[in-house]
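Give me structure tokens for this 631-residue protein.
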Amino acid sequence: MAGKIRASDIDEVKARVNIADIVGEHVSLKNAGVGSLKGLCPFHDERSPSFHVKTTSGFYHCFGCGESGDVYSFMQKMDHVTFTEAVERLAQRIGFQLTYEEGSGKPSEGGNRARLLAANAAAEKFFIQQLASTGAAEGRKFLGERGFDRAAAEQFGIGFAPKSWSELRDHLKKLGFTDDEQLAAGLLSQGDKGPYDRFRGRLVWPIRDVTGQTIGFGARKLFDDDKGPKYLNTPETPVYHKAQVLYGLDLAKRDIGKTRRVVVVEGYTDVMAAHLSGVTTAVATCGTAFGVDHIKLIRRVMGDDSGLGEVIFTFDPDAAGQKAAMRAFGEQARFSAQTFVAVAPEGLDPCDLRLHRGEQAVRDLIESKVPMFEFVIRTVLKNYNLDTVEGRVAALREAAPIIADIRDSALKPGYTRELARLTGVDMAEAQSAVSRASKQSSVSSAAAQNSSNGPAAGAGESTEPATITGNTFAIVTMEEIARDPAIRLERDALMAILQHPTLIPDPQMDDACNAVLSQPALDTIRAAIGANRSTRNGPTWLQEVLGDVPEALTPLVTQLAVAPLPEPEEERIPAYVQGIVSSLVEKDLVRRKSDLVSRLQRLGGESSDESRAISQELLALENKRRDVRGY
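Here you go.
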């Protein structure tokens, strides 16, 4: 059994890895100040970015849901791996050789997820090799008939599963993967006579997560004697959840983030055709309808918070395509981006369109998009006979709520006019129908709100008291602290100290650590900083501080360490940090002076040894204040 990874190696790997690179594989990050980035939180659904990453400290924090941590905890939560696996994966990523204590010195092999991913990677290589075999002629023919050459197959990692019950199983067993591991990865199926290859005689597409790791496969039927479905996917496994995966996202994510556009097509070959035609933001669902989890995934990758992005759905014009469009419309309000629909002429999907009319036709299809509201309204109206009064009234009644739900109020008048034109009713009648629908929607929303238990308290906003070294205080958030200007100074100074400790001279750091803060939680954090000031030049600085505060205060420490500083110019950061820390020290000196003056007044002006001692302390404080201004 492998031993523990040496602690110094854990620190070294974390120091060498840029947390923004890891988080950026899941979230589109934007600049939020010096050394700060922000994006939509991957741990909860939100419209405005509250997820912050601090590259200088290597920590992240979401001011919406309260999730926080370092690069290891991010990988643990996003990829569902153990701490050891997270360290090993990052070490492998940067080519760092880990040292293990009390063991064999070899990486651990007990991590279930890591083993399943390794099995999938080995299976992918096997399938790719098999595509060149004699038995895969039908698979190569299938690709060729759809306009995909060898280069396209290599680009998308397409392979072939032999018409065998155990060829993949036997190959993976030679590599050390047990039947149980192959079953758990969805590569085998369990029969009455034992496990057998799940994919047989099929063309195989690797399905990868947003980081590019192969988590499953989609396999297309090729032979008439195959009695299975046309497309057979990996079943639900610990690493593959079809409702949370989009095929092609690993290839499309960079351009999606750049262009703020994503094109949702219906199948693997459509994704291939789109990418090969220059539509490099195309993705597809994997054997399931487009749903809420897919939206969350796209919004994070796109950075969907401004309303300027575009989500374009391609649907077949048949009944199934219209049904899919209506399902997508039911979820479109979850996007801040504008949603569109692109329907190819004559019912051609992107793959057929490229094959019969060329790559330009695929690009033209996407540019011919129409707003989803318009598409849905026209789809609804097709169900009614608009030549009759009854048909027009019924159509108006069903279409009006669609316009009432449009978030952009500037668009409603135009769509109302369009509805009047399409149904053949007066503009006033259409306006009245939309107005009634809006009122009904408002009443329904209010009723739903009243029937709930009320809004949940935001993460980190608990008013439950926490006991800190015998004192009880209400836990506060960054926002609550900011309401008090005096406390805001203390907050900003601790932010500067935690984020840029090396910019603070030793005398100034000593004075700051000895200052007494008025806010109990912040003063506790200040004490933890003081206890660890000697480690501030090392990679574990923040971790050491976190280890010396009560657990109830760790979220606040992380917030302070991640929140953007109010100084936007990098070259001014040193002056800002030293200035705000000086202000904190001076504030404490003023407090101490006030206490001394109060003591002196209580002596009634009589000369005594105590009064002379107080006067000397006051003089020393004044000298100290001058020193503080000259740090």
